[in-house]
Amino acid sequence: MTGRTQSRGGRPTMKDVAAHVGTSIKSVSRVLNGEPGVSADTTERILRAMADLGFRRNDLARGLRQSDRTGTVGLVLPQAATRYHDSLVRGLEEVARRHGSLVLTASSGTAAQERETLVSLCSRRVDGLVVVPAGTDHGFLQPEQAAGVPIVFVDRPPHGIDADLVLTDDAGGARRATSHLLEQGHRSIGVIGADAGIHTVAERLRGHREGLTEAGLAQRRNLLRPGCETAAQAAAACLSLFASPDPPTALFTLNNQCTIGAVRALHTLRRARSTALVGFDDFETADLLDPPVTVVAHDVGEIGRRAAALVFGRLEGTITGRSGSHVLPTSLTERGSGGIPPQR
Amino acid sequence: MTGRTQSRGGRPTMKDVAAHVGTSIKSVSRVLNGEPGVSADTTERILRAMADLGFRRNDLARGLRQSDRTGTVGLVLPQAATRYHDSLVRGLEEVARRHGSLVLTASSGTAAQERETLVSLCSRRVDGLVVVPAGTDHGFLQPEQAAGVPIVFVDRPPHGIDADLVLTDDAGGARRATSHLLEQGHRSIGVIGADAGIHTVAERLRGHREGLTEAGLAQRRNLLRPGCETAAQAAAACLSLFASPDPPTALFTLNNQCTIGAVRALHTLRRARSTALVGFDDFETADLLDPPVTVVAHDVGEIGRRAAALVFGRLEGTITGRSGSHVLPTSLTERGSGGIPPQR
DNA sequence: ATGAAAGCGCTAACAA
DNA sequence: TTGTTAGCGCTTTCAT
């Protein structure tokens, strides 16, 4: 007689614990949830049995019964952006932890993978969802929203669903970057960025155009290099810009991968010191490059905290009513590369 | 009459779908799981009802019944290391996706948070677990392991439990880095790293000592700067090394945060071009710094794939028997900073 | 202070 | 082809 009642290979259940102690399953439940009505002696023996058996409550079953909360929030990120989202994860976790919730991060990638991931998380009954959209339609999330799962989109607006939104002032930041370059006297600014179909990219391009217009200039198509998804593609785009008969005297790169690619190309061309550069998004070694890179920075951790605040606000009823958008500001961090004057 | 049977605020269940169609819940289940034995007509109507109602199967309940698999693998990372673990996540996900599993990433931080996170994931019945340990004791995971949850530790060995392990050849890489510097004629190598209590750090220090010993040198205490957890601390440590009466002619930094901090300090001291430097861990802009930074690199994606292979191998019974360790190789990526000769 | 019974949403086993 | 019953591990009544 070992006293072990648990089934083969499986894990001990409350029933096993109860049997082990010789009490009812309800007493075990009471101890587990800190409810009153169990004698000190019984409590003690139950706790001991749980430790001996290596009991761990099955939260799936628990959640099944008290069908309100699972204590988890899902975060879905497109693979591409992972690096940049470190701080976002941290910001979100910081708030979630205070609310006793666990953040489960999963990645999307393609639109299909995103949908699969989101549905999986919903099937696992996360209490809330924070999504950096990868796909183009999110209408399939309507049932969850209707069932009371708060969904917050970050970075770009969703389609097919009306939900809370945390954005960055992409256009404003881009306008600022552009003006900065124009102030140094540049009249020919090359732009390197990802696919213009992406909301952030479109907004940054729009801001850039606004900056040009303000100075009485027009956007020139041959200075535009969209569609760069990797640093390598950005580097190639940069080389092609300078291979043209009328190369730019300055560059504006629309995310940090593009910035890094451009710097790499400029080094190859030995033009790093003579070409002005402003990049959108800060990155860790921006101050160590030669010359140090001026960037449009934004507080990604704050985005995470705001998204979390929205999720838990809705969950706890502090926030009610229609969904809204929150736009967070950017700032220009001048480090040198943006201050280089035009050279012929 | 709207035809809606679902309970207030809750989500539609299979029962609701069945009622809506006027069939039994079992037929709904059959359609959902692609089992045969449902007429085309009924199938059609059930599918329509599911779409109309926005039905989503409750995987918690499903998992409760067929208590074998939940289709999820937990990944727990210490916050500090997030950046470096991008590729790890990707490697793991790549394999998991092929096995139809979703990777849920959560972060640890302190030992207490790590335990909480791990227990939470276990309570949610993940099928397997990949852990980059933060705490010092993992004996509390024994019940899960006994219940058949494969657990793989990455980067450093666990204590209090015997589990599969995927490591990097830290000592070998460090020895190689050290030899490289010695070959340039350096006899005084400053070492900047994180807390020596961390396994990887200890191993890298050991490898460094071996390299020195091989050349007939001894480790000098005053050249050692452990305990640097951030780039800023590493920078300060670097400054202190060069403020000593007998400064080193070369540096060996034990992770990329330390490398970045050291480069920053060397720039401040205008010593970047005259001090040899080899860093452990590669990082994105290493080739863009001045001079380009020589590093000990390793394939982090491969670590993720190996860990995943172990988890699914155990899960599917392809791998059986006692747990084992896997040590992955490193390589020296020479970019310039390591080739600088000693200067007086 | 303690327990028995019902039920959460689903699937497995067995009818019909 | 379809439905009925039982039960996964837990919590929630409601007794005792």
TrEMBL record, chains A, B:
Biased composition (Polar residues): 323-334
Domain HTH lacI-type: 12-66
InterPro entries the UniProt entry points to: HTH_LacI, Lambda_DNA-bd_dom_sf, Peripla_BP/Lac1_sug-bd_dom, Peripla_BP_I
Example of a GO MF term: DNA binding
Coiled-coil regions listed: none
Pfam families given in the database record: LacI (PF00356), Peripla_BP_1 (PF00532)
UniProt-annotated stretches for the region Disordered: 323-344
Name this protein carries in UniProt: LacI family DNA-binding transcriptional regulator
Organism of this sequence: Streptomyces hazeniae
